[in-house]
Description:
The chain is an all-alpha fold. The protein has a domain at 44-295 and 403-440. The protein has helices spanning 7-19, 27-74, 86-89, 95-100, 107-117, 131-140, 147-174, 176-188, 201-216, 220-231, 241-251, 268-284, 289-292, 304-324, 340-367, 370-381, 396-399, 405-414, 418-440.
Amino acid sequence: MRYWSAPGQEDVTDASAQTEPRRQAPPRAQTHSTAAPGVAAERSTVYTLRRTMVMAVVTRLATAAVAMAATYALGLRPAPWAHRLPRLAEPFHGVLAHLFNPWAVWDGVWFIKISANGYAANDGSVAFFPLYPLLTRWIGILFHNNLVLAGMAVSLVCYFVGVWLLFRLVEREFGDRIAYRTCLYLSIFPTAFFWQAVYSESMFLALSVACILWSREGRWKLAGLAGLAAALTRSAGFLLIVPMAICYLEQHDWRLSGTDSDGASLLMIPEGLMVWMAYLALSFGRPLLFAQAQEQWKRSIAVPTYALWKGLVAGVQGARQLLSGQTAHEYWPAPDPGAVMPLAAANVINLGAVAFAIAFIVYGLKRLPAVFGVYAAVTVGYPLLFPAESSPFMSMPRFILAAFPIFMALAVATDRRPRTHIVVCTIFVIGLILLTAKFAIFSWVA
């Protein structure tokens, strides 16, 4: 944790320096006394950053090993052909199939389909924003058009960049110890396997962290470009205008009269969304088609309080269903008889994830700079505007990954509490192993 001396204390030191006789010290000793602390701190930060990046690599390798072991031990869960694309999303056979194929399931199939064939008006593909599949298609050239490898490469590179940027951002605010723990919690959270899957989570992490970091540093054009790219990665990207605006106003003493031309960089974020809407208007004549496509997942617009209540009821009823051990009586309506227990488990997991997020958003609003707490709140609150019918908190355990200030708040809360830290890591790792195995065998997680 960084500490700053009070201005009054600095004045006393200066005054004493003027009144006391100047002592002649050997040049080498004087250099050591002034430079050594700064050099030692810099070396400590570099060492912790290296340790953080090693941790990031190790967690990805361990997660890959868990997924591979799960496919050997449990096999692949039969999935409807509508959710599969064997020729492109399952290109490997033998040992390589167990190593790579599990990372291109569910939404990964959509991203690969878009990368290969582009968008269509009525198949739901426009719900997935274009930057990630477009980059996957370009990188696929390097892998002889193997889009699974290309998508994983994009995700992993973005994840490592995101961890590096996140360390810089948190170290700037709280020091290297909190920065390491933030990155650790982000890397072992139970849904952290998405960082290497053919999903856009890693790209969105890197771009959102870059936008806020550069906003804190006053590098507005770079922050605007990162925000624009994030808005082309996921619909939640336009929310970055909130933390960017907070940073801008903070640096201008919250006075609109003190704003300057740098404020125009904030407009780059909605421009990213407008680019996507312009493409949809020109291609299909419907600029809001990406929002209308959510109906395919039976999502509807509602106030967040409604989603919170329905999600709470669904989670409680899901727990009752699991405890009953039977499917004859449905405590919560399932789309088909075979989905009763999986839906119940999903609703319980979703409720636990949302409860965790809300708890540390509240804590973060008290203990973190305002920009982080507010960004976490709007990032988690945005999906609550579109609850799904059978699972109101659908995909929330994955969406929480984008709200990285939650993990900053957790790191602050466990600072100097080693036992609490060990408990958190244990729970996260167990959850990560179980959910990674579930995801790898083509079973829905988030």
